[in-house]
Design a protein that fits this description.
Elements (H helix, E strand, L loop, with lengths): L1 H35 L77 E12 L2 E12 L4 H14 L16 E7 L2 E6 L9 H15 L8 E5 L2 E2 L2 E2 L4 E2 L6 H7 L3
Parallel strand pairs: 4-5
Antiparallel strand pairs: 1-2, 3-4, 5-6, 7-8
Helix pairs in contact: 2-3
């Protein structure tokens, strides 16, 4: 019995020694491995998690991912640049048109507030009387009656030019004057027939006829004294034609 117990004790001691040796050997190997790895100081001391095992082909069902067909690649066509050939341009020569010069246009007459009429005087030369016209500016009027009235007022007032004279007696007045379709009607006061000889009568008659026709030389003149037609003038009975014109006066009483 003692022999059996001793054998067990020996076996237990051997096992314990072997286990202790194994532990010492394992610790030495671990220390040597840690000191040999270059990244041992930087690696975390956390236990390394074992990677998940991929399921085997038998355990996981097959998954088919559809792959779209590749899109066709369009190759750009080579574009040939079109070179435009410049066309020859023929210069157009314009022939200048003949310009006809326009005749100079007359300047418009300036409108004034006055117009000009002619008053006739007499001038002695070689024993004969000569009718001398003088332009007189009178106030412009719409009717010829007013212009001729202004001319006769100037005539009866007498000339301002000492080289001419008037045979119409002083104090003669214009009683009325009117312009009608058939002529000019002049009515004078009785002083018109007073004094003077035949030359004086001829001169005053010519002054009245020429002044009355200063606007229209071909007009006829009807002469009255105190409202009555003048038939005889002066003591010698100078006959006065009714109506009188410049042509009839020059024929019957040449100055």
């Amino acid at each position: 019995m003692k022999d059996g117990q001793e054998v067990r004790r020996v076996s237990t001691a051997v096992i314990a020694g072997v286990c202790g040796f194994a532990l010492v050997a394992g610790g030495g190997i671990a220390w040597w491995t840690a000191n040999r790895s270059p990244t041992a100081g930087t690696q975390s001391s956390a236990p390394t998690t074992a990677p998940a095992l991929s399921p085997s082909a038998v355990e996981s069902p097959a998954v088919i991912i559809p792959v779209p067909p590749p899109a066709p690649v369009q190759v750009p066509q080579a574009v040939t640049p079109q070179v435009q050939t410049p066309q020859a341009v023929t210069p157009q020569v314009q022939t200048p048109l003949a310009v006809t010069p326009k005749p100079p246009q007359p300047k418009p007459l300036e409108q004034t507030d006055t117009e000009t009429v002619q008053v006739y005087w007499v001038k002695g030369a070689s024993g004969k009387f000569e009718a001398v016209p003088t332009k007189v500016a009178v106030k412009q009027a719409d009717k010829p009656d007013a212009a001729l009235e202004a001319a006769f007022n100037s005539l009866l007032a007498g000339p301002n030019d000492p080289t001419v004279s008037s045979e119409i007696p002083k104090g003669t007045k214009l009683r009325s004057l009117s312009v009608k379709n058939d002529g000019v009607y002049v009515d004078l006061s009785a002083e018109f027939t007073s004094g003077g000889g035949s030359n004086s009568m001829t001169g005053r008659l010519g002054q009245v006829i020429y002044t009355a026709t200063s606007l229209k030389p071909n007009m006829k003149v009807w002469i009255s004294v105190e409202g009555k037609p003048l038939e005889l003038l002066g003591g010698e009975g100078l006959e006065v034609a009714q109506p009188s014109t410049r042509q009839s006066f020059d024929k019957n009483f040449p100055l």
